[in-house]
Specification:
alpha+beta, Protein Transport Mog1p, Chain A, 11 strands
């Protein structure tokens, strides 16, 4: 899936701060004009059925075009969005680019069971979406867009057990100085297959979202995994089962990301384990206390010796007094 700030497979959401009004104002920019023209030159006009990397199919309706991944990536860069190899394509209106789009992306997640999908925690998913948006801001700013934040759910996660899909919708807003664009709503449908999760994401401003929702729902309804790639084709003991589902599907991480992080954590653990063990704090306190007792004992001995030297002899007389009394008189 597509995300900001990283060029890796699997992400959470495709976000854009250039909503319709803002995009209309900046569409005269030469770079954007060129990106749009190049993308449409590669477009496949509907009505037609397109294959998605030989894993799935999608029916593109009349008056819309499907832009394959390479052309779609160029358009995403042109309007200030990071793109990546995960992009399978974009669905756009056939006659002009109006500032909204439907992105189709893929992530190698492994098999996600229906039981696991149904138990995903909504709060954990939202936190992953928000973290992914923030993490991509540095790359977005390099591409000329401002930072964004993902807000609360517009539609909390809804799992369709029959189609083995999760639908979510979250509001996106600018977190830096305003560029004049309106907030957007990202509606995402994640469809789980045998080895991959394919996401269809409608990214549109508030004014376009309701208008384009029927087209998006039509596309989602037409989506199908091909035989051999469906979740029902999963082979236990042979195919990989998904782990870290929220991190990969919604948090913008990849299996390679997580493997690298695990290897780094293991190396750090090994490094720490090789260090000399830290001293026992209780033993340190015992040694300190013993040392203090020794010092106190030494002080007592020294004071006792000093007292013995200056103490009077038995009978109350000093040695000098006794010598004086014993001397004969003349």
């Amino acid at each position: 899936m597509l995300k900001f700030g990283r060029w890796a497979v699997s992400a959470v959401i495709l976000l854009v701060s250039l909503a319709s009004p803002s995009l209309a104002q900046t569409s005269t920019d030469r770079a954007i004009d060129d990106a749009v023209a190049q993308a449409y030159a590669q477009g496949i006009a509907g009505p037609t059925t397109v294959r998605l990397r030989d894993m799935a199919t999608l029916d593109v309706p009349k008056d819309f075009v499907f832009i394959p991944g390479s052309g779609g990536s160029g358009l995403m860069h042109g309007i200030g969005n990071a793109s990546e190899d995960a992009l399978l394509g974009l669905v756009l209106p056939a006659h002009s680019f109006g500032g909204w789009f439907i992105a189709v992306t893929a992530a190698k997640t492994g098999f996600v069971s229906k039981e696991a999908a149904a138990k995903l925690d909504h709060a954990e998913i939202l936190a992953a979406v928000q973290a992914s948006a923030r993490r991509g801001n540095a790359e977005r700013m390099k591409l000329g867009s401002g930072p964004i934040e993902a807000g609360a759910w517009v539609e909390p996660p809804r799992y369709d057990v029959a189609r083995h899909q999760i639908t979510t919708a979250v509001r996106i807003y600018e977190s830096g100085p305003s560029t004049g664009g309106e907030d957007s709503i990202n509606i995402d449908v994640n469809a789980f297959g045998r080895t991959h999760t394919i996401e269809l994401a409608l990214v549109a401003g508030l004014s376009d979202n309701t208008k384009q929702r029927p087209t998006f729902d039509q596309l989602v309804a037409s989506f199908k995994f091909l035989p051999g790639h469906r979740a029902d084709d999963f082979i236990p003991g042979k195919d990989l089962r998904a782990s870290h589902i929220v991190d990969i599907v919604f948090g913008g991480h990849t299996l390679d990301d997580l493997a690298a992080e695990a290897a780094e954590a293991a190396a750090e653990h090994k490094r720490v384990a090789a260090l000399p063990p830290p001293p026992d704090r209780i033993q340190q306190i015992k040694l300190l206390f013993s040392g203090l007792l020794g010092v106190v004992a030494l002080i007592i001995v020294v004071l006792a010796l000093r007292g013995a030297r200056g103490a009077p002899a038995p009978g109350g007389a000093t040695g000098l007094d006794r010598a004086t009394r014993a001397a004969p008189r003349r």
